[in-house]
Amino acid sequence: MKVTMKQRIAITTLAALAATTSSIWAVDANSVEYPDFDTLVVTGTRTEEPVSKVPANVSVVTGKELQDRHVTNMEEALRTVPGVYQQVSAPAGYESSNAIRINGSNNVQYLVDGLSMTMPNIGYFTPLQTFQNIGSIDRVEVLKGAASSLYGSNAVGGVINVITAKPQEGMKTKVRLMGGSYNQEQYGIANEGRQGNVYWRASYVKDHMGDFKDARGQRITQSNHSHTGSFMVGDEIDKNNDVRLAYDSYRANVTYADSMRNLNHIRNGHRKYDSFRAVWDNRINDNWKHSLHVGRNEYDTRDNDPTYGASALKVRGVQVGDQVTYTKGKHTAVGGFEWEQYKAMTVNNKKVTNMAYYIQDAYKIAPKWTLTPGLRLDHHSAFGTHTSPHMSVGYDVNDKTNVYVAYNRFFVAPSAYQLYAPFYGNANLKPEQGYEWSAGVHHSWNQSLSGTASVFARKTTDKIGYVAHPTAANPYAGAYENVNNEKAYGFSADLQKKMGADWATRIGYTYTNVKASAKSAANIDGYVPKHEIVTGVDYAHNKWDAHFDMRIAANRRGPVSANGPAFPRNSYAVANLSANYQANENVKIFGAVNNLFDTYYAEATNVSYGGTGDWWSMPGRNYRLGVELSF
Questions:
Q1: N or C: which end of the chain has fewer CB within 10 A?
Q2: Which range is least confidently modeled, 64-78, 268-282, 302-316, 354-368?
Q3: DSSP three-state, residue 525
Q4: Main-chain phi, psi angles of 562, to 5 degrees
């Protein structure tokens, strides 16, 4: 690990402070805690409900779990969630071409506090790497499966909902300093608190990363100089009204290399991402409440390619919505509207607008039975009106077991980029439509052992995909087309076990099978692994806690071509290890080793076009070391 002199001085100073004050403060770390069977979640039904009663496959990761692992952005955070698969070319530079999939679909709705962050005008780009304010997170809820009746056309594979925490009474400030491999430096400061009804949070993170080496020692040119600022202020005006405003800003200058056979092809770019959110929660009476939200997101990327020249992509999205919740007796009903408009300034200023209305009622038809019908109506500016019905049935076998079956239809409008982009756009595209069946079980054996299992089957008509049409003049020519009717099905199971106060373990298995078609090989040309295991062991005792995480991808061969294997290996395992020492209530020292076993692997490939071995290899073993100072 290469650490600069200023990092050494700062870390040594803070470590000395910890050593000299540890006798003054006596602090014990908390025992290992996972979200339990009765953890309340909101993403499954848009109302608070124990995760064990939700008629869907929902995983929860707490903010503390992410902070203990010292992940630096949401892309890293989601690698601990079973069933969420990411395709990343490199840590920097490829943000708008990275992909995230759930249940084999890249149509995933990404929310922060219930507001959409997805940028559908860029082909459902999800700006995960721009969210670096990990310390603000209360929990991340991941719904795996179609949920278009509540969340719209993006939610075919599932929904990722980042829920931020409300500050507690008083005020605290946290300073964070981290250094690591590849000249990584991160400096952060955050202040949050509450005085009476008013609460706030403000933070700033400066992050730098330089060239990295893969597991075979090949140096890959890259750099990322980013600045992230976040601000939130809220006012609980009275017991019935809560208003909050939030703003996040991300700026970065990046340098990044091409794939392995063309590493001297270096690009430079600038990234700009801004998000504003406003929410008013109002409790009308014991039965009625509503939540009004307004949001505005803008993503602006500029790149300079020495071969192909300058390029730019700028998209702005505006959204307004209101949800009403009614609870009485056997009914818990939600209904509302959502208006969204996205403008692609770099695609001839094209706009797409969608107005949606939705309603759903969880009706307790018998003591152990819950029937939940729902309907969403979307009116799209380019594709007219479509309906997406939903129906689920839940049954409480006993106080430890719940089973469910659900049916969802979905409608996915082409993005402005897919319709109108120069060279690649196709104005004749039709919307994707389809349905999904799912069924599952939640079961708790006892207070220390619980698990879930689920299956799904999905059919999509007029699936949209990029189809290459290479020519002698342009070997990279192609366009978006309605390529096929796609069928997918899968199975997942998760277990978590607490072993006393100090130890806990968890494991999740996901099987995904996307059927081959005339224009696509199985599992999206082999990009989606057929089998995936996410497992981990956690330990906490007194002032120490440690966390071991491993993700195993199996049977992921990538696109087949005459140039040989698409990836270094079809199956691989990547493990991370992190540890924290709470010297006193003010000082924490932490370290992490990522890619512990120095696995050589890649998630993106160019072998079909560039030749043998032309993939984007991922970083080899790397280290992080840092200190957090709270006061």
A1: C
A2: 302-316
A3: helix
A4: -75, -10
Write down the pLDDT at residue 420. Answer: 83
Contacting residues for 5 by C-beta, under 8 A, at least 6 apart: none
Q: Is the pLDDT of residue 18 over 70?
A: no
| The residue to which tokens 């070319």 are assigned | 89
Residue 441 buriedness (CB in 10 A; 0-12 / 13-18 / 19+): middle
Task: Provide the 10 A C-beta neighbour count for residue 110.
Answer: 25
Among candidate residues 587, 575, 497, 485, the one with its CA nearest the CA of residue 534: 575
Q: What is the mean pLDDT of residues 325-346?
A: 93
Instruction: Give the residue among 104, 115, 94, 120 at the shortest CA–CA distance from 160.
Output: 115
- Measure the CA–CA gap between 161 and 138, rounded to whole angstroms: 11
Which of 397, 72, 99, 494 shows the shortest CA–CA distance to 252? Answer: 72
Per the document, the length of the chain is 631
**Residue 205, token pair as written in the block:** 């993170």
Digit-coded pLDDT (tens) for 427-437: 899 999 999 99
Kindly write down the DSSP assignment for every residue of 188-232, as one continuous string.
EEEEEEEETTEEEEEEEEEEEE--EEBTT--EE-EEEEEEEEEEE
What torsion, rounded to 10 degrees, do the Cα atoms 250, 255, 258, 259 define?
A: -70
* Nearest alpha carbon to residue 33 among 498, 579, 582, 576: 498
Question: Pairing relation of β-strands 108-112 and 158-164?
Answer: parallel
Give the residue-averaged pLDDT of 33-60. Answer: 87
What are 624's two structure tokens?
């992080």
**What tokens appear for 366 in the block?**
């018998």
Contact between residue 568 and residue 605 where contact means Cβ atoms under 8 Å apart: no
**SS3 labels along 81-93:** CCCEEEECCCCCC
pLDDT band at 31 (very low <50, low <70, confident <90, very high): low
Three-state DSSP class for residue 291:
strand
Strands (E), 413-473: 432-446, 449-468
Torsion of CA 298, 304, 308, 309, to 10 degrees: 90
302 CA to centre of own chain: 24
Dihedral sign, Cα of residue 124, residue 125, residue 128, residue 131: negative
For the chain, how big is the Rg over CA atoms in Å? 24
The pLDDT of residue 607 is above 70: yes
Q: Are 280 and 242 in contact (CB under 8 A)?
A: yes
